[in-house]
Predict the 3D structure of the following.
Amino acid sequence: MTVTPAVLDRDGLSALVSVLVAEGRTVVGPTVRDGAIMLSELTSADALPYGWGVEPDAGRYRLVPREDGAAFAHSAGPQSWKNFLHPSRERLWSADRTAEGELTFTAHEPEAPAYAFLGVRPCDLRAIAIQDRVLTGGRYEEGGYGKRSRNALLITTDCTDPGATCFCVSTGGGPSAGPGYDLALTEVVDEGGHRFLVRVGSEEGARLLDQVPHRTADMVTEATARASVEAARDRTGRSLPPVDLRALMGASLDAERWNDVAADCLTCGNCTMVCPTCFRTTTEEVTDLTGDHTERRQRWDSCFDLDFSYLHGGPVPRSARSRYRQWLTHKLSSWHDQFDTSGCVGCGRCIAWCPAGMDITEEVAALETELGTEAD
């Protein structure tokens, strides 16, 4: 659809949040909490992280003040929208024993709030599309995820200030929002004021825009917004080698670099927990002390967990070397075979939140150097 770009000022953004709340949507967006930019339910735009940015690096993340008062000029934090669409724990069913000794089973319908996600970064927009493909695109749909995703309204924000761990340009995940959004905002702060260029991506987005104060976009705002996004493209902190990653990873199974990885990797699973596309789960049964009530729950799991691949006789990837190799080759190579896409969007979370400071871009570059040298 084609709708003329518009401009919202800060009052207009506040009005947008108020409209979404009034319509009964659960608005989720970034806010400052616990020394980080976190995703939380918002009842007002005043809770947005105006004037805060971040400084991430390998194994490091710091919240820092900004002088320009921008709300969305920060890179990815420790959470992604996966936390809401594909929650870390979800009850599947419960069983109860009656006083007469009979068992009753109750299936639990998944919670499916009408979410409105505000401030979805371009890399995370692509991650949502990938998880949609994984969890709803096959024969067996993840029912709770499907309901939540289909009902979610997505308001993206173009990236204008990438972090040192960002490499979305290498993966096609940014810095400008691709298709799939309802509204896309580009934040502009200059002598002309604090405002947001708005692009409409759906009928629902157009309907919402009509309900809040806005004006037709002027040439200066459009040009400034476009220049800010293009400048961000040149300032991403990291990059993957410009080679066929699918072929590279498939050919690297016996590379010596994996031994170097094994010396550093703690197999803690942090990289999979913060990854916006990782979808692995397991189930667990929890019984109360009386033995009269039990629940089956689905929870996140990690391919770094020894129990994840446990078969009779033990786990398949036993060593840190094999488990890291499984994670990285699946993410960048065999994911294509399963889902026709890469599993990485270049958000950089796995770099910032690795306690050992391991860097996916550094590891892939080292593999490319090693295999390229061997080929020569």
